[in-house]
Amino acid sequence: MGATIAVLSQKGGTGKTTTVRTLADVFRRIGLDVLAIDLDPQGNLSDYFDVDPDASPTIADVLAGRVDATAAVHDGIIPANLSLAEAEIALVGKMGRELTLKRALAPIADDYDLLLVDCPPSLGLLTVNGLVAADHALLTTEAQYFALQGVEQALEVIELARDGLNPQLGWLGVVFNIADMRTRHSREAFATLREHIGEKLFETTVRQSIAYAESAELAVSILDHRPGLAADYLAVADELLTRLKMTELRPRLQQLTASLVEGS
Ligand SMILES: Nc1ncnc2c1ncn2[C@@H]1O[C@H](COP(=O)(O)OP(=O)(O)OP(=O)(O)O)[C@@H](O)[C@H]1O
Ligand SMILES: [Mg+2]
């Protein structure tokens, strides 16, 4: 049974999409079957994976019940586009609206080792669908003073999803993203989070670099675009394997790290 991870944040621009894209790349390279799911009407993840903008069906068709999830998989991703905004509105009036994604993914979850859901930058119905469908939630935060506030708000929504709809939902922790640890600002924000959430804060911080925007623009994985920089996400992936209790995969990840980072 594939583990489903929803990546979310209260704020926009915290690196959710970059995290989903890059973790999907890392886990695929160590042999896992990964399904990426774009749950954001902006369709950034779909663009980053270079999915044809006219690709059809999309996650909107899946949520509207027009097609099975299998039919909407294009090269390992269920894409999204603006039509998802309409699908979300249509969902609001439906019974079981929070369970729609969970029900849609249930028949295919077994076909994958890992399902990664990229949530939109709001804690609305789509994100709640992501959380209800997930086994685990993963938060990203930008390295800045208000990080703690955003994390606390996202945690409230995780609580909401747990309360009745998905009591089993686990919380993997928070990835401190887009960070410049040379600045006191970033270091203090990290320390504040550490104080409040302890071990839930990933040890690894993801460095700020323009290479990520370039990588998204080119629709090329950061692992290919800047293998040296990929060390950060490889380390995030390693911490994730431990948190997911999938430690048997760590040696493969170490090999990948050696070939990518040490070879660059
Ligand atoms: N480590 C990084 N350093 C610098 N820029 C980054 C980094 N990670 C992502 N970015 C850039 O920051 C912007 C936001 O990243 P991304 O799209 O991954 O965030 P998001 O949380 O998915 O945003 P949204 O909330 O709009 O969906 C993008 O332009 C991306 O290329
Ligand atoms: Mg995004």
Quick take:
With 264 residues, the protein is α/β, with parallel strands linked by helices.
Describe the structure.
- The protein is an alpha/beta fold.
- It has helices at 16-29, 44-48, 59-63, 83-92, 100-109, 125-133, 147-162, 184-197, 211-218, 222-225, 231-243, 250-262, and strands at residues 3-8, 34-38, 77-78, 114-118, 136-142, 170-179, 201-207.
- The chain has one domain (3-208): P-loop containing nucleotide triphosphate hydrolases (Rossmann fold, 3-Layer(aba) Sandwich).
- Helix content is 46%, strand content 16%.
- Strands 3-2-4-1-5-6-7 form a 7-stranded parallel sheet, sandwiched between helices.
- The termini are far apart.
Task: Chart the SSEs and their pairings.
Layout: E1 3-8, H1 16-29, E2 34-38, H2 44-48, H3 59-63, E3 77-78, H4 83-92, H5 100-109, E4 114-118, H6 125-133, E5 136-142, H7 147-162, E6 170-179, H8 184-197, E7 201-207, H9 211-218, H10 222-225, H11 231-243, H12 250-262
Parallel strand pairs: 1-4, 1-5, 2-3, 2-4, 5-6, 6-7
Bound molecules: adenosine-5'-triphosphate (ATP) and magnesium ion (MG).
